[in-house]
């Protein structure tokens, strides 16, 4: 397994959110297209914000805490026909459990639980070189789009 972290939420040309996961050296990037609600949930967690009422991922974290469970890690474990699959690794007392999840939900929960995120070797085959994704021109384009998205996310929190 390869440890990764959330680099940012970007948007493709059709304004669809893309979760960008990078390796520790930030040489490889795994783009995963996600839903708008999940992108918002991840952006809120990245900024350390909170909503006036709990978002779904906040609720899941609270449920884990209340029932004595701990999210120990998230693994983006597989890709089939262009769809990524993830697993939540949860420990309750000495009893481990693995729960299937969408990568976006798993990452949103991992950020709230401060749990590490990994990708499998198979999934690593789908990474891109960071310079392909983060060229100077592309960075400026993404920066403008992200600023608009972050402003919108901040407004929705108030």
TrEMBL record:
Alphabetized Gene3D superfamilies for the sequence: Bifunctional nuclease domain (3.10.690.10)
Pfam families in UniProt: BFN_dom (PF02577)
InterPro entries the record matches: BFN_sf, Bi_nuclease_dom
Domain BFN span(s) in chain numbering: 1-131
GO molecular function, one term: nuclease activity
Top-level taxon in the UniProt lineage: Bacteria
PANTHER family with a match to the protein in the record: VON HIPPEL-LINDAU DISEASE TUMOR SUPPRESSOR, VON HIPPEL-LINDAU PROTEIN
Protein name: BFN domain-containing protein
């Amino acid at each position: 397994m390869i440890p990764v972290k959330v680099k940012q939420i970007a948007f493709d040309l059709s304004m669809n959110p893309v979760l960008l996961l990078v390796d520790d050296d930030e040489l490889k990037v795994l783009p995963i297209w996600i839903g708008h609600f999940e992108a918002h949930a991840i952006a809120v967690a990245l900024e350390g914000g909170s909503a006036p009422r709990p978002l779904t991922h906040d609720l899941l974290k609270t449920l884990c805490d209340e029932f004595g469970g701990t999210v120990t890690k998230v693994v983006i474990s597989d890709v089939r026909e262009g769809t990524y699959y993830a697993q939540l690794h949860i420990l309750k007392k000495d009893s481990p459990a693995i729960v299937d999840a969408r990568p976006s939900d798993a990452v949103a929960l991992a950020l709230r639980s401060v749990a590490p995120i990994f990708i499998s070797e198979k999934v690593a085959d789908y990474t891109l070189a960071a310079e392909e994704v983060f060229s100077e021109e592309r960075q400026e384009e993404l920066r403008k789009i992200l600023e608009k998205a972050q402003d919108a996310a901040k407004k929705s929190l108030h």
